[in-house]
Amino acid sequence: xxxxxxxxxxxxDAGETxxxxxxxxxxxxxxxxxxxxxxxxxxxxxxxRLHAEGxxxxxxxxxxxxxxxLGADLCRPDMEKDSEAGYPVLRMVTAQTARLxxxxxxxxxxxxxxxxxxxxxxxxxxxxxxxxxxxxxxAERLTVELATMExxxxxxxxxxxxxxxxxxxxxRIANDEGRSDVLWVPGANR
Length: 190
Description:
53% of the residues lie in helices and 5% in strands. It is mainly alpha-helical. Its EC number is 2.5.1.17.
């Protein structure tokens, strides 16, 4: 159980923060930037939920919980030392990505195939989901960059990759199942 009885600690005033294993690093470290971007993504999902109802809201709620799991995973380096932690270390698992894939497959059944690229526009929910997609892509790029320097759970990278696909398909669903998608017209303003 998490207990937050004091929000400010003053331990980060010099530009450092603690990782999940207690190590102190610069706040601009790639690992911190990666999980900070996952936190930003979670906030954009919360904004999308302002426009979502029913099943879409339920699915976005699941994603928000997954994103906290992902942040917990990314904030703890040294996966090979997980057994030394003295408690179960939270890591992303392939089942979370498999759930996204199942949801994508179900949504795609409701859509006509695309014959053009689409603009991030249309309904308020669709536009917000496109914003989620772009923030997810940035979080993925940062996590992949981190993986070139330190060990990263492969399930975390795969989840982020699939999540941006999920947001793309969900944005089409939010545009009247693709019927209100705004198509890109190449060179339209030349």
